[in-house]
Structures are given as C-alpha cells and as structure tokens.
Design a protein that fits this description.
The protein has helices at about 20-25, 35-45, 50-55, 60-65, 70-75, 80-85, 95-115, 115-120, 140-150, 160-170, 185-190, 215-225. The protein has about 250 residues and is mainly alpha-helical. The protein has two domains: about 10-190, Hypothetical protein, domain 2 (Endonuclease III, domain 1, Orthogonal Bundle); about 200-253, no CATH class. Helix 9 crosses helix 10. It binds zinc ion (ZN). The site of zinc ion has 6 residues, from loops. Zinc ion (ZN) binds near residues 8, 9, 176 and 180.
C-alpha cells in the first residue's frame, strides 16, 4: 500500500526510499548500456548486504565509478583502486571493486562483438507466457543461462540469483504482483520498448551488413527459434552457450 492508498508489492514498504524506486524504476525496461552495467555492478556490491544499503550509497557509487562509464572503468589503474578503497561513501570491498574493473573490461569486449551490452542481455528475455507467479522464485532457466554465459566470458559476481534480481529490475521480467498498481504501467512500457539488438554495423533490424559475423542472425534464431534469415548460414558455427561467434568468423567479409 502506498500513500495514495493503492495496492503495491509488499517489499516497497520495507524502507521509505523504496517507494520511489519501486514506482519509477523497478521493472521498467532498460536498454541503456551504462545503466545495465551500473545495475550489474551494484548487484555485485550488494552480495551479502541489503539493497537498501546499496541504494542509499548509489549516488556515491556513481561519482566514484564515473557514472559507470565502463570504457573509463576498464582503464582504472592501481591509483584508482587505492582511491576507491579509501572512499567511505561506497562499499570498500577489494574483491568487489576489482570485479567491477574486470567486468568493465569484459563489457567492452561484449560491445565489440555484439554492438552493445543491451543486445546481449536482452537475448535472455524469457518467454512471458512461461513465467513463474510474481515474486515466488529467485532464479529461472534464463537467469541460470545468463549467469553461466557471463561467467564463461570471465565476468565476476554474476550468480544466477543475482542475475534474476537484475532481470527483474531491468524489466526483462514484469515481476510486480498481480494487484500492484505499477504492474500495468510496466506492461505498457514493455509493449512500447524497442528491443535492442539489430545488426552490429547498421544498428538496424531492417538493414543488415550481411557479414558472416552479423549477430542479428543469431538474435533471430534465439528469439524466434526459426531458421536464420540469411542464406548460406548452415556451415557457420557459433557457441550455443554464449551465442558468440568463434574468433575466425568475427570479421565480416
Ligand atoms: Zn509492484
């Protein structure tokens, strides 16, 4: 229940600052790479702590990590690590800080291969017809797959429960309970939402580069489980686990 007397997910009563987060952020679909990276990083910092603690420090994290610009974080030096370890406004955990720097480097590699972090992440959007009842589970087949694939690519602090929380927050799942006033708002936001992806060169779902490494072809197979729309693709191998084309196919002809 909120101050307007309307019904909401019960968790938003746990702390006063949750109401705004619940009403304006949690579950609204996100395709902005920095915000996706920010949430992945904050989820990592949360490990063993509460979301309330992290949310209260979020602005400090944003300041300390250059608004989660992973191109910059990927180049952090020992001096930056020393600065972060002295920053009382964030969570000063050496392993977690190092994980963010590592993940920033991995994020850059993903952008290189997929065009954006968002294009990769949204490939794990579950079939909305097969979702569990809201807020009854803490992992799913998709969160397990995302966790496994990110780990394979060298990411840290990306366990399946963390990935499920990430998918709830970033709108890959609408997990607001049935009588929550925000649920229908998320539903219409998800309808309007333009799924990221498309050709990594033309950045369009209509204009393809037709290169052998065009990830659009994989996106089509993943989402529609239908034959790839380009011809002559059968001989090309890709890793079903990661959806990433082997190195030899990365350069388009
Ligand atoms: Zn809700």
């Amino acid at each position: 229940m909120g101050p307007d007397g309307k019904s909401r997910c019960r968790w938003c009563n746990a702390a006063p600052e949750f109401l705004d987060y619940h009403d304006t952020e949690w579950g609204f679909p996100v395709s902005n790479d920095r915000r996706l990276f920010e949430k992945l990083s904050l989820e990592g910092f949360q490990s063993g702590l509460s979301w309330r603690t992290i949310l209260a420090k979020r602005e400090n994290f944003r300041a300390a990590f250059h608004d989660f610009d992973f191109d910059r974080i990927a180049r952090f030096t020992q001096r930056d690590l020393d600065r972060l370890l002295k920053d009382a406004g964030i969570v000063r955990h050496r392993g977690k800080i190092a994980a963010v720097v590592n993940n920033a480097q991995r994020a850059r590699e993903l952008v290189e291969r997929e065009g954006s972090l968002a294009a990769f992440i949204w490939r794990y959007e579950p079939d909305q017809k097969q979702l569990a009842k809201p807020q009854t589970v803490s992992t799913s087949a998709e969160s397990l797959a995302l966790s496994k694939d990110l780990k394979k690519l060298g990411w840290k602090f990306v366990g399946p429960t963390t990935m499920y929380a990430f998918m709830q927050a970033m709108g890959l799942i609408n997990d607001h309970v049935a009588d929550c006033v925000i649920r229908s708002k998320i539903e219409s936001a998800r309808k309007r939402f333009k799924r990221p992806g498309g050709c990594h060169r033309t950045r369009s779902m209509k204009k393809y580069c037709r290169g052998r490494a065009c990830p659009t072809r994989y996106l089509y197979r993943a989402r529609h489980a239908s034959p790839l729309h380009h011809s002559g693709m059968d001989a090309i191998q890709f890793s079903p686990a990661t959806g990433i084309w082997p190195a030899s196919n990365e350069k388009a002809p």
